[in-house]
Model the fold of this input.
Amino acid sequence: MTVPDTVEGSVRALETELGLPTGFLQSLRTEDDWSFIIKIHALIEAAVSHLICTALGKDTLIDVFSHLDLSDKRCGEMAFTAALSLLEKSDRRFVSSLSELRNTLVHDVTNVGSSLSKHVAAMDSSKFDVFVKGFDSFSMGGLVRFEGKDVPREEVFRREPKTAILTVAIIYQVKETERFSREANDLRAQCVSLMADRLRHLISPNANM
Done:
């Protein structure tokens, strides 16, 4: 499973906007699995805080939201994204699943150096199905392209859980940056239209009389 350069470019732009080091995404590929989950969670957490503040038009609240629990569905950041209709249900499920996995890892020091592949391999079929459903926010349960073949999503999560989670995280980030871009373009178009109307009124004040 590969990530196109255009996707990486979009995420690098987001890294810059969030004040994260350039190449943060690329470095995740070589991290051990424990560090990978911690860092990808930090990226998503910062992005969600940024999303909420942007929607509210209050950048000054970034410190407030960054201290809220990410996955709490009643009073955390996921509660705000749901109430403000900022994320689709599948995206909220992905963020919550990632947050829960991260919390499981960091609250037990014996998990340092743990392997995602071994973690997944130890799951029974029921737990694995829940794991896949929780993290997969893009395939809609269909086939995905992996190593040049179309395969069931379960195969990717079973064989390469780190790659699968990273890919979903990238897709999530790109979806958000593209949404912001569309909203910014719409806002610019509205401003241009408003300015044009005002200019027409100034040039011909009696035009609408």
User: Anything to note?
Assistant: Residues 1-5 have pLDDT under 50 and may be disordered.
